[in-house]
Amino acid sequence: MRVGRKTFLLYASLLPFFVLGFYTVKKGIDEYVLAYRPRPELFPRQEFINRHGFPADSQEVRIPYQYQGEQSFIAGSLHLSEGRPLVILLHGTGANRQQLVHEAIALADSGLGFFLMDWPGHGESPGSISWDDRERKALSEVVHWLREGMPSPKVAPLAIYAFSMGAWIAASSLEHLDGVDSLVLAGVPADAEYGLNRTGGVLGYWGSFPARLVSWLWGSRYWEKAPMDEIGRRPHPRLLIVSGKQDEMIPTSESLRVFQKASEPRALWIAESAGHGDYLRADPQGFYEHVIGHFMQVDQKR
Prior knowledge:
Elements: H1 5-36, H2 45-52, E1 59-67, E2 70-79, E3 86-90, H3 101-109, E4 113-117, H4 133-149, E5 158-163, H5 165-171, E6 180-186, H6 192-199, H7 204-207, H8 209-217, H9 227-233, E7 238-244, H10 252-261, E8 266-271, H11 279-282, H12 284-300
Parallel strand pairs: 3-4, 3-5, 5-6, 6-7, 7-8
Antiparallel strand pairs: 1-2, 2-4
C-alpha cells in the first residue's frame, strides 16, 4: 500500500505532538511516583539499635493532628536529654525517618535530644502527601506537642534540622514555629522554578508542565510558598543554611538565594565534598562544628 506525499507529511507533522504527549504522560507519572506515592516502609528500629548505636532508650510516639476534619498522627522516635535542646529532624521526598537516622545518632552522641519523624504518607505516618498545608499543619502540631503536650518534663529549647523538601516545609511554616529557637535548612530549594524547570529538561518551563499538572490534580500548590520569599518576609529562628558543593539536585546557588534573603542571626556552611544530603558522611568534622555547634550555641545562651 502506497502512502501519498500529503498523507506522509501529515503524519510527519503530527509526530512531534505524539512524542510530546508521551513525554507529558511519562513525566507526570514519574513525578507522582517520586513525590506523591505513599511510602509505607516501616522504620527498622531494632536493626538500627543493634547496628548503628541508635539510642536504646528512645520512645516510639504518635503525635495526633487534625487536617480538614480528618484525624491522623505523626509517628516518630523521641530521645530526650533532660534540660538540653531537642532537635526535630525532617526528612525529604521519597524517604522516611531512616534518611536522617545517622544525624539523629550524632545529635544524641553530643548530648542533645531529638524527635525523628515520618512526614504524612511516609514510614509509619498515615495520610496523603501534598508537601503543602497538610505537612505544615502536622509540623505545627509536632512543635506544639513537644513544647506543651509531652507528659514528661518540658525540654527547652526546641530546634529543627530540615532536609530538602523537609526544609521547604520548615521554611514555609515560620508562622507556626513559635517556641523553635534554632533552625537548620539543609539542601533547601529557593523556590519551585529551578526544580520544576529542571524536571522539564531542555524544554524548561513547558517541559515542567506535567509536574505542575500532577501537583495541581493532587491538590498541592506547594510552589506558592517558596522558602526564599517566606524567609525574606517573616521573622525566623536563628538560622543556618547548609549546602553541598557537589550537590547537583539543589545546587549551592539555590541555597545562597535563601541565605541572602534571611535576616540576622544567620550562618552558612558549604560542605566542599558533599552532595545532596550527605554532609555528615562527607565531612563529619564540619558537621559537628557547624550543625551541632549551631544547636549548642542555643544551649549555651540559656
